[in-house]
Amino acid sequence: MDAIIVPTARPSAYLRQAIAAAKERDVFLLFLCSKRSTVPGAVLEAKNAGVRALAIDVDLLNPGLVPDFATDRLLRFTRFRRQTDTSFKRNLALLIAVLAGWKRILFLDDDIELPDPADLGVAAGLLDRYPVVGLANAGMPDNSVVCHAIRDAGGPQDTFIGGGALAVGEAAFSSFFPNIYNEDWFFLLDGMKLRPSAITGTAIQKPYDPYRDTRRARAEELGDNLAEGVFGLFDNRLGLAQADQAYWREFLADRRRIIRNTVELVKAAPIEAGQQTRMVASLRAAIGRSELITPELCVRYLRAWQQDCVTWRQRVTDLRRDHHGGSGIEHAVEALGIPPLAQAAYDVTLSTGSKHRSGAPRSVARV
Fold it and tell me: Which of 60, 9, 80, 78 is nearest to 38 (CA)?
């Protein structure tokens, strides 16, 4: 791996798993910080472990570093607008990787543990054959609130590889993460079909309560419908050309029926009363939001997303053309115009054993 990239919004203590893996494998770390995650805290954790790292305060960056996507414009003034910055961070990381000349990166969320860092070497090797490689999740299943409820009520529910622990090769840098729930599923598409992918190793998602706040279910519903609907087409050997209003009308009706049935299953299941109440409230919140999703919106979103795929590929092409010949993390942050106040680095120069920390991009050693 050229780098482990951690989009983080939690306190710096949550970075220790990623730091331990980077130290074990001698991999550069890129922290993209916001909210409760601070640049000084992230760099201090890396310094204490002797790990090469750069931390960037995403809250101080110009949103224009990433293209203004048609999908964002479609949802911007609606209830479906997503309030998180995860997609922005991951897309920024892809642009940095392009400019730094990296070939293999690992996205690692700050609530993921890696029991065996050697899995990163295996994943890196598989990137020679597959554009993306997911680490198998052996912890809390990476599902939406609705899917968690189906499983917790005794129904069958699968999982799929996700962005929480995802190795990405240079061939997939031309894909992007739309600002919607299940953005990692859309990243796995090349605009028309699913990219070849592999699964290896083990990652452990830390547990959380998906039913703690009904807003979670509401926020997930549009992305869950779109991703499940698109992958359902692929499962039936169909393509995006078949994702017309008639398809979505039938799919949305089936989705609402499944959620209503799950409500009844939860009520009948031997689940603790308080938990049962929270589950039902979350499922009803999902139904309420689902009622606002129209077949026309689904068609318009997918068209906008395909337009965004072209926009993103052009952005990557332009960066490679305009900054041809440059490489390294110093070149990347300078080319993107990331201000010195928004970043800090800790570098371990293995050849001399010297260590330094600086907030200026020109002092970040190439790695």
Answer: 9
What b/e readout covers 32-68, taking b as 16+ CB neighbours within 10 angstroms?
bbbeebbbebbbbbbbebebbbbbbbbeebeeeebbe
Euclidean distance between the first and the last CA atom of the chain, given in angstroms as a whole number:
12
> What integer pLDDT is reported at residue 304 of this predicted model?
97
User: Is residue 49 over pLDDT 70?
Assistant: yes
Q: At what angle do helices 214-235 and 245-268 cross, to 10 degrees?
A: 130
**pLDDT, averaged across the chain:** 92
pTM of the model: 0.93
- Rounded to 10 degrees, the C-alpha dihedral 84/194/108/170 comes to -110
Cβ atoms < 10 Å from Cβ of 257 = 10
Averaged pLDDT for residues 247-260: 97
**pLDDT on residue 348:** 52
Q: Which secondary structure element, helix H or strand E, spans residue 262, and what is its range? A: helix 245-268
Give the CA dihedral 346, 47, 35, 343, nearest 10 degrees.
-10
CA pair distance 313, 292, nearest whole angstrom: 32
Burial (CB < 10 A; 0-12, 13-18, 19+), residue 165, is buried
Helix (H) or strand (E) holding 230: helix 214-235
Whole-number Cα distances in Å, 108 to 4, 96, 105, 113: 7, 16, 10, 9
The candidate with the shortest Cα–Cα distance to 223, out of 193, 187, 253, is: 187
CB 11 within 8 Å of CB 36: yes
Q: CA–CA separation, 153 vs 197, rounded Å?
A: 31
Helix H or strand E segment including 344: strand 343-348
Alpha-carbon span 348 to 333, nearest angstrom: 19
Cα 103 to Cα 96, 106, 124, 201, 347: the distances in Å are: 11, 10, 10, 20, 20
181-211: per-residue pLDDT in tens? 999 999 999 877 889 999 999 999 999 999 9
- For the cut 70, the answer to whether the pLDDT of residue 140 exceeds it is yes
Tokens 């996205």, residue located: 107
